[in-house]
Amino acid sequence: MSQTDTARLLIACDDQPGIVAAVANVLAQHGANIISLDQHSTDAEGGRFFQRTVIHLPGLAASRPALEASIEEVAERFGMEWSLHDTSRRKRVAIFVSKYDHCLMELLWRQQRGQLDVDITMVVSNHPDLAEAVRTFGVPFVHIPGGTGPEAKAAMESRQLELLQGNVDLVVLARYMQILTDDFIERIGAPVINIHHSFLPAFIGANPYARAKERGVKLIGATAHYATADLDEGPIIEQDVTRVTHSESAAELQSRGADVERLVLARAVQWHAEDRVIVHGRSTVIL
Amino acid sequence: MSQTDTARLLIACDDQPGIVAAVANVLAQHGANIISLDQHSTDAEGGRFFQRTVIHLPGLAASRPALEASIEEVAERFGMEWSLHDTSRRKRVAIFVSKYDHCLMELLWRQQRGQLDVDITMVVSNHPDLAEAVRTFGVPFVHIPGGTGPEAKAAMESRQLELLQGNVDLVVLARYMQILTDDFIERIGAPVINIHHSFLPAFIGANPYARAKERGVKLIGATAHYATADLDEGPIIEQDVTRVTHSESAAELQSRGADVERLVLARAVQWHAEDRVIVHGRSTVIL
Amino acid sequence: MSQTDTARLLIACDDQPGIVAAVANVLAQHGANIISLDQHSTDAEGGRFFQRTVIHLPGLAASRPALEASIEEVAERFGMEWSLHDTSRRKRVAIFVSKYDHCLMELLWRQQRGQLDVDITMVVSNHPDLAEAVRTFGVPFVHIPGGTGPEAKAAMESRQLELLQGNVDLVVLARYMQILTDDFIERIGAPVINIHHSFLPAFIGANPYARAKERGVKLIGATAHYATADLDEGPIIEQDVTRVTHSESAAELQSRGADVERLVLARAVQWHAEDRVIVHGRSTVIL
Amino acid sequence: MSQTDTARLLIACDDQPGIVAAVANVLAQHGANIISLDQHSTDAEGGRFFQRTVIHLPGLAASRPALEASIEEVAERFGMEWSLHDTSRRKRVAIFVSKYDHCLMELLWRQQRGQLDVDITMVVSNHPDLAEAVRTFGVPFVHIPGGTGPEAKAAMESRQLELLQGNVDLVVLARYMQILTDDFIERIGAPVINIHHSFLPAFIGANPYARAKERGVKLIGATAHYATADLDEGPIIEQDVTRVTHSESAAELQSRGADVERLVLARAVQWHAEDRVIVHGRSTVIL
Question: Which pLDDT value is given to residue D44?
Fold first, then answer.
């Protein structure tokens, strides 16, 4: 399907009668055809309502201001938060990485193959190791070394913020082995997706594969979530697991887990790229 | 959620602008609140459109005739097929079975536990073996023996039709080891769901587990589908698989497969019970 | 395969050269044929060695003392722990249950169908509710009510121990909603398998489905493990998960999870019944 | 674990008493320690016996002739086929590819990361498109164009054979869109692994994703198998599936399936590299 003249309308409000009809009418009045509509109510009564509507509107660019004005009227009536995303405008993504390359390469590769609807505008790393691998894809690689102590960390984050602010719509931590400060996450001005190498909330924190081996679990997994100030506690976007046995060492679990990590992160980034993920408190709604 | 005063509206028509708005308006005019709405278009342009809407309408019984009249007006305008299902009216189900009990018991058991929203009104079998197991659940068991040759078959089907016609909304073949005639399927007056003990279209026909063993497959599966005149060719509702190894015999594959069969069939029947399954040519849309 | 004259030999010792040959020689000298042999070393060097050997020995009962004497010689040489299990002697199992019936029914039902190689000799419950359902299977149901306070608990455990000691080879907690005291677990004289309704170590403790919903996980699971004094910390035998979405309520997660629980518990009990599970510290080796 | 001085012994013979002991004794006599041992009998009685034994033997190179002579004696006694593979000698692999790159890239990438224990010595293609992508990995890319008609085909295969004979231990068809002639497969002198883009035996032949869409299946899959003269009928090494819905187009199924293909093929090649796969008639035993 051509992406021209299509857009995604996301809305969220307290559940109440008449929302679907009101939105559908506004769209119909402006000549927008509904390509798909997904909605979710958190409770049968008294809950929160979410809707994602993909529309096709010939001459979208010209019609957009009038459409937005009409949506705003409905939104005020229902107490709605809303946003309208032109599907032809791909999100600009910065990937943060340290030395592990599997998640990074999966994203670069899928993007190149047309399976990831984003623009990867830069890769930022605290190590120089992956520069060549990244530049092969025609993507800028920026090495911002860390250092020891809070001052070096502050300096590093300050340089990262200069680079990112206003320039990216999404930051992806593709096994970036540094903890971001709360201040950094607040000032970055874009959502941050992290991949954690365990099935959260199992094995929160460091060395999950070693701890999975020690605990003798029969499945290992990975979790993609929005990064928040609370480490490993942000809203979960996607998770998956794979079966393992007693015969696999911690190193083999890590290798097996790497395959889960890259697929889980790729799915999460793609869903975010398609405006399918709505944060609701500590959890997400995927529409 | 209380099921009182809720209903499910299914519609299908050629895709065209304004369907969602038109339906939502009719519902709003009659005071029906949309609890959930799922839709699917087979193509971006020129395809078929399907929608399932769950509504809440206080005083549904009294308001229903007027609502139906309004829906019919919209339906004529858009060339829609539609149906409105009161969620408080559970479907009446007859289960056909031979000697294998695993699928039968799963359905009886889930129904008893409140996990299957149907009324199981009778179990029909060509063997007497499972009579007591069925009657323990308070469900009538009717033994209609088969026989040899087409005349005996016709007599059996004639007795079955007497029992079923007008009395059931769904027939479930829970490993019923007899082939139904086309005539029977046409005259039965209700949809028929069959469980096939393979991942169709692999191993169409008899003895799939023996053939799976012989072929050395690494996964075995089961398929729930609507029965049509073409054996094993009806629209697929649900499928699943489980991993097997070379060390498992054909008998063990059969035992492992039985667990997949009963879960797949239970899901398919539950989805049908919730009016989630719409047949589209040889396939299904699950809303 | 006929189970007559077959046995399972389990051995565990520090890894060292020559174990497999020594054991195979003893077996060959006594005319025992190796039907299957599985082994595992925890490390390439300096680890622990485990082996499960299924043998066929015509006239097993008569030959057993001499065979055991020879095995003991080898065992002393290698510092081996070992046990020899006649496959014709099925383990005697007591199932503990409260009010939830899904895990209990799965075990009773599989046992009846010949898919669980144990004898279920009694079901013990602190509630009378499931008496009839159990007795339908010809299995004794013993109601030992609990009570309030440590004295009532001690009295209940005392009655349970009278019933169990010497009479059972395995106790299965099939969603038994009481915490066992350390003293009880020590004195029971048989291993205890528990089913926990989460993917441990995620959601250790009470109400895992509610907490899974609150945390917004995308998969829910179940864990079968040996019960130890540390609640939910015993060696894991089996785990599995199923995918869920934001649209499912905590009650639906519980219902979905119940299907995982019963399959996971049934697999764990069957593996234990086949002497496949060897405890190694906090984890298990499944041979 | 260091791979030095380790080897894998594969044996196959008619099942009979004493095999395990005889082999273990030979190994013990030569000072070889058994690191792992896996065996499989196709039937409890009268079947075929397979065993894979990983051994550690200090000074393997020097001791090998004597060890082989002793194994040969045992082999003659039991009518065994056997082979002994030095783990330090990695298999030389040629990858055949046309225009799709996903399976090729997965193999190159895993090999580079140390997750695929083979040497990729060349990539052969009937199209020039992927030359640069391959050479980036330091692997030779050989473009052997096809042509129209049987003579061009024979010329192409002749050039391929010149390149391969004596130079490779394994050929991998990584979505190579040409049919190999029986003659070519016979003369190539190395096993050939193919990836088929369906869950065989469902959708044998061309365009499986389009046919899966048309048939409305709920899972799509991929199959890695040894290529034989009968297209898509060779012994299956590995298979997997992924869940799909009615909302995915045939193109999306193809994209989703590509992820399954690359993981299935990578697992199959790795198992072959570790000498885990033994062909038994039309099926395989994975030890």
Answer: 63
CA–CA gap between residue B105 and residue B117 (Å, rounded): 16
Domain end (from B86, B111, B134): B86
* B124-133 CB burial, b ≥16 within 10 A, e <16: bbbeeebeeb
Say how far apart CA D262 and CA D284 lie, in whole Å: 20
D51 closest CA partner among D76, D86, D24, D91: D24
Residue of B41, B52, B219 to mutate for D, most D C-beta atoms under 10 A: B219
Domain span at residue C57? Answer: 6-86
Residue A232 known to be catalytic: yes
Q: What subunits touch chain B, counting only 3 or more CB pairs under 8 A?
A: A, C, D
Question: Any idea what the CATH number is for the domain that residue A27 is in?
Answer: 3.30.70.260
With respect to residue D216, please indicate whether it lies within any of the assigned structural domains: yes
Same domain as C100, residue C46? no
Q: pLDDT-based confidence at A146, cuts 50/70/90? A: confident
Is D253 found in the same domain as D111?
yes
- In a domain? residue B246: yes
B122 and B159 share one domain = yes
Q: In this structure, is residue A1 part of a structural domain?
A: no
Predicted confidence (pLDDT) at residue C122 exceeds the cutoff of 60: yes
| Residues A136 and A44 grouped into a single domain | no
Could you tell me if B43 and B76 are in contact, meaning their C-beta atoms sit under 8 angstroms apart? no
- How far is D95 from D124, CA to CA, in rounded Å? 6
What's the pLDDT band for D134 if we cut at 50, 70, 90? Answer: very high
Closest C-alpha to A86, from A72, A69, A65, A107 = A65
Tell me whether residues A33 and B25 touch, CB distance under 8 A: no
User: pLDDT at residue C45 above 70?
Assistant: no
Q: Which residues contact A191 (CB under 8 A, 6 or more apart)?
A: A170, A171, A226, A272
Same domain for B45 and B156? no
Chain C residues bordering chain D (beta-carbon distance below 8 Å): 1-2, 17-21, 24-25, 27-28, 31, 33-41, 44-45, 56
For residue C176, give every residue at least 6 positions away whose Cβ sits within 8 Å of its Cβ, in sequence order, or none.
C96, C97, C98, C126, C194
| Domain contains C1 | no
Calculate the alpha carbon distances from A221 to A12, A174, A282, C201, D231 in Å.
31, 16, 20, 12, 37
Give the pLDDT confidence of D39-66 residue by residue, as tens digits: 998 876 678 999 999 999 999 999 999 9
For residue C1, the model assigns a pLDDT of 42
Residues D169-208 have pLDDT tens digits of 999 999 998 888 889 998 999 999 999 999 999 998 889 9
Predicted confidence band at D230 (pLDDT cuts at 50, 70, 90)?
Answer: confident
Residues B228 and B279 in one domain: yes
- Residues C107 and C17 occupy one common structural domain: no
pLDDT digit string, tens, across residues A39-90: 998 876 678 999 999 999 999 999 999 999 999 999 999 999 999 999 999 9
pLDDT, average across residues A143-155: 89
pLDDT at B146 over 90: no
Cβ contacts of A65 within 8 Å, gap of 6 or more? none
Task: Kindly list the residues from chain B whose CB atom is less than 8 angstroms away from the CB atom of residue A2.
Answer: 44
Residue carrying structure tokens 């365990």:
A198
- pLDDT reading at D1 higher than 60: no
Tokens standing for residue C163: 């019933």
| Ramachandran region, residue B48 (left: φ > 0; alpha: ψ -120 to 50; beta: rest) | beta
| CA-based nearest residue to B88, from B120, B119, B110 | B119
The tokens for A231 are 């480490």
CATH of the domain at D241: 3.40.50.170
Environment class of residue B206 by beta-carbon count within 10 Å: exposed (0-12), middle (13-18) or buried (19+)? exposed
Residues B96, B72 share a domain: no
The last residue of one of the domains, among C30, C60, C86, is C86
Number of independent structural domains in chain A: 2
* Four-point Cα dihedral B238, B239, B242, B245, nearest 10: 170
